[in-house]
């Protein structure tokens, strides 16, 4: 990993930690798998301090540009799935 996670300088230390945790779960979904409920719970926490869809989209785009991982597609798959784990291996973005 040679990139930084996106964050807003106005966030609290706890919010930055929670955002990093969310983006790390997105990475895990691509590199291995992640528990669906943990991902959705972490995403819901992320939405508490990033309620704006436009801000979310900006942060997701920054992360995807830096990492190649689509947060949007991971969250979408988690919401639509009933599987225990979410994995993006072999899934085109």
Automatic annotation (TrEMBL):
Pfam family, one: UPF0223
Signal peptide: none
Matching NCBIfam families: PRK04387.1
Family (UniProt): Belongs to the UPF0223 family.
Species: Virgibacillus natechei
InterPro entries attached to this UniProt entry: BH2638-like_sf, UPF0223
Entry superkingdom: Bacteria
Protein name, UniProt field: UPF0223 protein J2Z83_000332
């Amino acid at each position: 990993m040679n990139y930084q996670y996106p964050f807003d300088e106005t966030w609290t230390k706890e919010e930055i930690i929670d955002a990093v945790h969310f983006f790390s779960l997105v990475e895990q979904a691509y590199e291995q798998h992640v528990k669906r409920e943990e991902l959705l719970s972490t995403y819901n926490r992320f939405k508490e301090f990033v309620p704006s869809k436009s801000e979310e989209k900006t942060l997701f785009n920054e992360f995807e540009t830096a990492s190649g991982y689509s947060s949007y597609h991971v969250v979408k798959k988690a919401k639509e799935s009933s599987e225990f784990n979410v994995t993006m291996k072999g899934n085109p973005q």
